[in-house]
Amino acid sequence: MLDKLKRWLALPGRHGTPVPAELWARIEARLPFLNWLPLDALARLRALSEDFLAEKEFYGAHGLQLDDEIMLTIAVQACLPILNHRGLAAYRGWVGIVVYPGDFVVPQQTMDDADVVHEYEEILLGEARADGPVLLAWFDDDHPPGVNIVIHEFAHKLDMADGDANGCPVLPPGMSRKTWTEIFSAAYERLCRLDDAGIETILDPYATTDPAEFFAVASEAFFETPMSLRTDFPAVYAQLAAFYGLDAAANEERLRATGFVI
Predict the structure, then answer these.
(1) Long-range CB contacts (within 8 A, 24+) of 53-57
(2) pLDDT (0 to 100) of residue 142
(3) Which listed residue, of 80, 100, 111, 112, carries a Cα 20 to 30 Å from 224's Cα?
(4) Alpha-carbon torsion 229, 233, 238, 243, what sign?
(5) 178 pLDDT tier (thresholds 50, 70, 90)
(6) Rounded distance between C-alpha atoms, residue 229 and residue 148, angstroms
């Protein structure tokens, strides 16, 4: 099935046939937050997703039969964070994407202060590894607004570009690492205080785990519910808009004002 999809994925001039329009329509209907993209950006996202699929290798785990729609749906979401950022160069150095039919168990190890290694198993929805691959859970049902496993894990991949997932990815020219760190640190501490007080925000409480998870969860909200993120964490939103090269909240606001979305 993957070979079939890759035969589709070469646009004219790349020795193949474009992805069928009806497949694009099904996928884009499944991902309503793509409405926050300008039309020209959506066309570029399609092309980038096709290139992504030609470069990466998908594997179905635990008997999951991958089909064209699953792989292309993942590719579109994986490419959204890099569309106006660095393109596929941001994902160089690894090729594998392992897709599970729901959550999965991964063996973990930790070392305590006495240098004793503890082994345990953790139930995950996704995991990004610095040297690849990316592990993802696939669900046929819709997810809650603002929650996106694919964007979350690929945000981690961007965060790991300098070797560490610490909540501060490699920034594009013109952005200040000092400013980023100050804004994200203050927002992370504020979220932890709000969570301790039982006050909900647009960000999933999982963002309080550590600064790396805060960045990944904030990235989910940036693409899925940008106006809400801008309201709750305006400084974080501004940094992400500069990082991802997209003012998603302005596009959402404009569309809602015209009645295009409710």
Answers:
(1) 53/5, 53/6, 53/9, 54/6, 54/9, 54/10, 55/88, 55/91, 55/95, 56/91, 56/95, 56/96, 56/97, 57/2, 57/95, 57/96, 57/97
(2) 63
(3) 100
(4) negative
(5) very high
(6) 14
d(CA 228, CA 86): 26
Contacts of 128 (CB under 8 A, 6+ apart): 134, 135, 153, 154, 156, 157, 160, 165
Q: What is the mean pLDDT of residues 179-191?
A: 98
Over residues 209-216, the mean pLDDT reads 96
Identify the helix (H) or strand (E) that includes residue 48: helix 39-55
144, pLDDT greater than 80: no
User: What's the confidence (pLDDT) of residue 116?
Assistant: 67
- Give the pLDDT confidence score for residue 105 in this predicted structure: 67
Residue 24: DSSP 8-state = H
CB 1 within 8 A of CB 68: yes
| pLDDT for 145 beyond 70 | no
Tokens 């793509």, residue? 34
Mean of all residue pLDDT scores within the chain? 86
Q: Which of 5-9, 84-88, 107-111, 179-183 has the lowest mean pLDDT?
A: 5-9
> 17-22 long-range CB contacts below 8 Å, 24 or more apart?
18/50, 19/46, 19/50, 19/72
CA distance 232 to 90: 29
Q: If you write DSSP's letter for every residue of 155-187 in order, what string do you get?
A: HHHHHGGGS--SS--PPPTT--HHHHHHHHHHH
Which DSSP letter does residue 11 get? P
For the chain, which domains are there?
Answer: 2-257 (3.40.390.10)
